[in-house]
Amino acid sequence: MADLRVQYMGLQLENPLVVSSSGLTRTAEQVKQCEAAGAGAVVLKSLFEEEIQAHIDDESGGTEHTEAVDYIRELETDAGIQAYTRVIREAKSSVKIPVIASINAVTRNWWEDHVAEIARAGADALELNISLMPYDYKNTEQEILDFYVRTVEAVRARVDLPLAVKIGQHFTSIPALVDRLRWAGAQAVVLFNRFYQLDIDIENLRLQSGSPLSIPADLALTLRWLTVTYGKTEAQLAANGGIHSGADAVKALLAGAEVAQVCSTLYQNQYSHLTTMRDEIASWMDRHGYSEISQFRGKLSQKKSSTPEAFERLQYIKALVGHE
Ligand SMILES: Cc1cc2nc3c(=O)[nH]c(=O)nc-3n(C[C@H](O)[C@H](O)[C@H](O)COP(=O)(O)O)c2cc1C
């Protein structure tokens, strides 16, 4: 029988399937369900700085009195963090699998001020969900990249926990950013987050939300960047985005991922789909004569390829000249 165990950020996982941060991992009870269905680890729903900020705005009701606003800010921030640390403690006492906390902050001070409290609650690792919307034409690419790197450095200076950074897909060079994040103190980088999908309602002339869930075709982008990043940096890679089946998870491992994070497929098929996915990975390994994941991880990455130029191809040349 295939051995599915993997080491992720120094943590021992029974298998490479990690339930990614979402409404599926908001409570300790849900984390228990993930474990029962066969998850190797879970990433808790993120604590969002902006959500706490929205509470502060509601509570302060437009008051201009700065001292009052400061007081409300302190209370709301404390309440938000205490509720989150309670979930971490409850989850940790309910399951044996690693529990990874997740924070999304938009201002660097916030990370610096609160990350230690969250670390003290006992999570096995921390995933930093860093996302900046570069809407301002005055923000240069360098400034944006530096924000990511300085944030990781600041968190690393405050906590000893294993750190992963979850990023979006839109960077000029993913391998270069992953390596910078590694040197800033992150053991792993999660490729990729799925952001709010924007759509337009043409009848009512207003913005609307697109589908929050991914489809299997979204895996193509994840695989592209895994294959060219694996082996070129000491950062471990977690695949995320479009993994809907055991076969998809195998593809991510062949591309170089340490673990496969899943979300949309569990919204569609329930937690029990983790059992099916885990069995599919094991049966694929048996069929191909692999007893451990390390025997095939990254086998189809650019680093291990005899035709590395094949990975650098961006365009369908034949399509451009009208043949295919
Ligand atoms: C409803 C929903 C809520 C999510 N909430 C979070 C979150 O709190 N923090 C986070 O880092 N990612 C969040 N995500 C993103 C997922 O963790 C994951 O990165 C993304 O959905 C891609 O994986 P998938 O293709 O398996 O769905 C959320 C996704 C969905 C669909």
UniProtKB/TrEMBL annotation:
One of the protein's GO biological processes: 'de novo' UMP biosynthetic process
Domain of life: Bacteria
Pathway named in the protein's UniProt entry: Pyrimidine metabolism; UMP biosynthesis via de novo pathway
Names of the cofactor(s): FMN
Any single Pfam family the record assigns to this protein: DHO_dh
UniProt-listed SUPFAM superfamilies: FMN-linked oxidoreductases
PANTHER family in alphabetical order: DIHYDROOROTATE DEHYDROGENASE (QUINONE), MITOCHONDRIAL-RELATED, SLL0744 PROTEIN
NCBIfam families referenced in this protein's UniProt entry, alphabetically: PRK07565.1
Protein name, UniProt field: Dihydroorotate dehydrogenase catalytic domain-containing protein
Organism whose genome encodes this protein: Alkalispirochaeta sphaeroplastigenens
